[in-house]
Amino acid sequence: MTHLAAADEPAHEDFTQQQLKSFQVAVKSFREHGFSPTFIHAANSAAVFSFPDARGDIVRPGGTLYGFTRDVLSPQIEAPSFRPVMSLYARIMLLKQVSKGQRLGYGCTFQTTRDSLIATIPIGYADGYRRALSNRGRVIVRGRFAPVVGRVSMDLTLIDLTDVPDVRLNDPVILLGRDGQLSITAEEIAETIGSLSYEITCGISSRVPRIYSNR
After folding, report:
1. Which of 33, 34, 54, 117 stands 20 to 30 A from 66 (CA)?
2. 75 near 87, Cβ under 8 Å?
3. How large is the greatest C-alpha to C-alpha distance in the chain, in angstroms?
4. What is residue 9's three-state secondary structure?
């Protein structure tokens, strides 16, 4: 096997083709010396869709198995209609009415511009919810988007639910996933903070409980 370094980058197609050629030469040499590899494989997610010659006997899709497309595959191919399979949830642990002009969170980076309903959820950067989402991220609560306000701390995050009706303690909060027509994808989060969808999903720490579903 080999791993293609730039199969998702059209500007480096020549480099990828050279990698494949070198790999094929190596496979031929092995066979000429009496070795018969059980499987020949070089295709990661990007190569599966962009370089059919890389498929060999088996393929190694990674991000596409999670439903990633746009920051995993070449921008020159039409994105498959995959459905992301990973979600991240928290629940509202505190609801507080906050008057206009109050500063919230470490560093006082957010100040309310109106009387606001602020919720605290028990997730933070120690869980893998990135600190870079401070004052930039968004969540879904009761079928509406709501912004992250203030700095994401180690264990807690604040969200502004002023425009979300009928919220209650213990309501679910979607940080990654879908609710009806609304969704927050790993690719969206990655784009917001200048990262990659792989880094978002791989970064969810071991202290976050995993629930596996076959739905």
Report:
1. 54
2. no
3. 78
4. coil
Which residues, listed in sequence order, are joined to residue 158 by a DSSP beta bridge?
A: 120, 149
The CATH superfamily holding the domain 88-202 is Lyase, Ornithine Decarboxylase; Chain A, domain 1 (2.40.37.10)
Nearest Cα neighbor of 82 from 197, 189, 172 is: 197
The whole-angstrom separation of Cα 136 and Cα 69 is: 23
Report pLDDT digits (tens) over 160-204.
Answer: 999 999 999 999 999 999 999 999 999 999 999 999 999 999 999
| Confidence (pTM) | 0.89
CATH number for the domain whose boundaries are 1-83: 3.20.20.10
The closest of 203, 214, 179, 188 to 68, measured between CA atoms, is 188
Per-residue pLDDT reduced to its tens digit, 51-93: 998 998 999 998 998 898 888 999 998 888 888 999 999 999 9
User: Is residue 126 a contact partner of residue 155, using CB atoms and an 8 Å limit?
Assistant: yes
